[in-house]
Design goal:
Blueprint (H helix, E strand, L loop, with lengths): L1 H28 L1 H9 L4 H39 L13 H27 L3 H6 L10 H27 L7 H37 L4 H12 L1 H35 L8 E5 L1 E3 L5 E3 L2 H11 L3 E9 L11 E5 L8 H6 L13 E3 L2 H8 L5 H8 L3 E3 L9 E8 L3 H5 L9 E9 L10 E3 L1 H7 L4 E9 L5 H14 L5 E4 L6 H30 L1 H9 L4 H34 L17 H8 L1 H13 L16
Parallel strand pairs: 6-10, 7-9
Antiparallel strand pairs: 1-11, 1-12, 2-3, 4-6, 4-11, 5-8, 7-10, 8-9
Helix pairs in contact: 1-4, 1-7, 1-9, 1-17, 3-4, 6-7, 6-19, 7-8, 7-9, 7-19, 8-19, 9-17, 9-19, 10-16, 17-20, 17-21, 19-21
């Protein structure tokens, strides 16, 4: 909903900017006619009305045509997308009220696009316009200073919107109006920021001209043309800025969603490792053990060249009912145990998640569990009869405590029975070796240590590390063979969290480039049409073709480059706002993790591509000599 609202708002903003640039160029070409109209008694209000009504009419016609084309496209696409599913697309329906609002919005957009050029045209200097003279705009610091405050206010609004939106997702009882208010602020803030940057843009163009004027004749001509004609340069810059802003914000959202997915992902085993639990859940809540022989054979047959190992462990309390004499579990030593340990590895009296909290095996088994080499300290501790904990929450002053209780029947458990007091408590020296990711393993000991402590051990899982990543067909074959062994067996292959940010960011970069190329081609074409006299002068004074091409190249660099850089910077603001959180907050926000590579290419490579297109399309034209013959008296 948030991204759709932003996309709609800035799509409308983009149209207004490009249409505004077209109206501005048209007003300058009609300057003489408007001056004649003013000289015969037309007031400023009348001239403003003439141009603004043109904007309304063009917006209305465009809205009607666009709505009609949209209806036709939807009618054609609906059966193709539905593919016979009426649940996803319940038929083709036209909402006249919504379509009328769209047409009305397009008419209002046309008026807004024509309003500023109409205001400027209504204040035309009649004498200068009739003589055909054009005065360059006077540089002013007043508007840029106002723009600084407007942009700062917009950033504050965006940050406030992010805070409200994140806070609204912390409670399920939050009123919908609060969430809507946060989204409105988050949309309004960037719009206000961009309005402020439009006011600052003429100053930025003058600064760019001062810097690039030393880079050769083409750079000096192109940058000065952009800085001295803000009426056509600023709308083009703002159109590219708006397009890049939406793309940069979308890239940050996708990248932040990727980071959130990675952070919340529940790892079952090391990367590219297959695991099969040997617990066969029964209808009464207990489990029985599946022989490991058939599982090992199926994995070895379908996943060739895999290092397969059978892991043993002490089952959680009650998992096997009274089929085992005792249950043993490590004690969570610290009162401030991490949330991960409390959820996944609680003590046997308050949480039996079905995972063995104690794993028993050799050093090779521990290496397979960790997905990395066993440290020398861990090896020495195990050799001395100690334990290796994958979480620090089990270790208290360098020792791990094991509590052993008697088993009870499943019937007793169903009647509310709980574990009694420990019949045996033992502690051993322990060290912590954290794996790269939090896995479903707690404490590891050698078989000799487990026997000495009286820990009852059963074969509970099979873990396999393929030599190469298996194909989907191999995994499907292994799954089918395991079902033949036992219908409740399930092969879990750890492929890591889904990585989608890079692909989407590259796709957004390509889409942004295409849209920016379209917007810049329109804007630069308008700029060339408006600056035709300057091009004629260059040709007339004998400027070489490379100078004319360099003129177009640097004109594109200045307009597209400044717009792209501003758009990227502004796109970071709402993304940063959605990542604001307080201590202890674990959900409801989107981590701020910008894809700097794609953003850098958007700010640098895309303007260079646009400038390259301007260089290629720059043509040498012969100057046109216009003469006027007065009628004979």
């Amino acid at each position: 909903m948030l991204f759709v609202a932003l996309l709609g708002a800035f799509g409308l903003f983009e149209v207004c900017l490009l249409a505004g640039a077209a109206f501005a160029v048209g007003a300058r070409h009609r300057q003489r006619g408007l001056a004649i109209l003013s000289s015969v008694g037309a007031t400023r209000r009348m001239i403003f009305a003439v141009m603004s009504i043109e904007g309304i009419l063009l917006g209305l016609v465009g809205g009607i045509l666009g709505t009609g084309l949209g209806i036709v496209a939807a009618r054609i696409a609906e059966p193709i997308l539905a593919q016979g599913s009426r649940a996803a697309y319940p038929g083709f329906h036209v909402d006249p009220r919504a379509l009328a609002l769209i047409v009305l919005g397009s008419a209002v957009s046309g008026w807004a696009a024509a309003a500023v050029p109409a205001r400027s045209a209504s204040r035309v200097d009649v004498v200068s316009a009739l003589r055909g003279a054009r005065r360059p705009p006077r540089p002013s610091i007043r508007r840029p200073m106002i723009g600084v405050f407007v942009a700062a206010f917009g950033s504050i609004v965006a940050l406030l919107g992010g805070i409200v939106t994140v806070a609204a997702h912390q409670s399920p009882n939050t009123r919908p109006s609060v969430t809507t208010g946060g989204i409105v602020l988050l949309v309004a803030g960037p719009v206000i920021m961009q309005i402020g940057m439009v006011l600052i843009a003429p100053l930025l163009l003058r600064w760019s001209s001062a810097i690039l004027s030393r880079w050769g004749t083409g750079a000096r001509l192109g940058s000065r043309d952009a800085s001295r004609n803000p009426g056509r340069a600023v709308p083009a810059l703002a159109a590219i800025m708006s397009c890049v802003f939406v793309s940069a914000f979308a890239m940050c959202l996708v990248s932040g969603g990727q980071q959130q997915s990675i952070r919340e992902y529940a790892w079952q085993a090391p990367l590219h490792t297959a695991t099969v639990s040997l617990y066969d859940q029964q209808t009464d809540g207990t489990a029985t053990l599946v022989p490991a022989t058939g599982v090992v054979a199926a994995i070895g047959r379908d996943l060739p060249r895999s290092r397969t190992r059978v892991l043993s462990g002490s089952p959680d309390f009650g998992v096997l009912g009274d089929a085992v004499p005792t249950y043993t579990a490590p004690r969570v030593a610290k009162k401030t145990a991490s949330a991960t340990a409390r959820v996944a590895y609680g003590t046997f009296v308050d949480d039996s998640g079905g995972s063995d909290h104690i794993t028993v095996g050799s050093l090779d088994d521990l290496r397979a569990i960790l997905g990395e080499s066993v440290s020398p300290v861990s090896q020495a501790t195990l050799a001395r009869g100690g334990a290796v904990s994958l979480y620090p929450d089990y270790v208290d002053h360098g020792r791990v405590t094991f509590d052993t209780v008697k088993s009870i029947s499943q019937k007793t458990l169903q009647n509310g029975g709980v574990a009694g007091k420990p019949i045996r408590t033992a502690s051993v020296v322990a060290v912590v070796q954290k794996p790269a990711h939090p896995f479903s393993y707690g404490v590891f000991v050698l078989p000799a240590t487990a026997a000495r402590l009286g820990i009852h051990v059963v074969p509970s899982a099979v873990i396999a590390t393929p030599a190469a990543a298996p194909t989907t067909a191999q995994l499907d074959a292994a799954t089918n063979d395991l079902l033949a062994v036992n219908q409740n067996l399930y092969l879990s292959f750890e492929d890591g969290p889904p990585l989608f940010a890079a692909q989407w960011s590259w796709a957004l970069l390509v889409l942004t480039t295409v849209i920016a190329l379209g917007a810049s081609s329109i804007a630069l074409a308008l700029a060339r049409a408006d600056g035709r006299r300057d091009s004629d002068v260059l040709v007339a004074v004998g400027a070489a073709p490379r100078v004319q091409r360099a003129f177009g190249f640097w004109q594109g660099v200045v307009i597209a480059g400044v717009g792209a850089v501003i758009g990227v910077v502004l796109g970071l603001v709402p993304a940063f706002a959605l990542g604001l959180k307080t201590a202890g907050m674990t959900s409801g926000f989107i981590p701020f993790a910008p894809p700097w590579l794609q953003l850098g290419l958007t700010a640098v490579a895309m303007p260079l591509l646009i400038a390259g297109g301007a260089w290629l399309t720059a043509r040498r034209r012969l100057p046109t000599l216009r003469t006027r013959r007065d009628p004979a008296v």
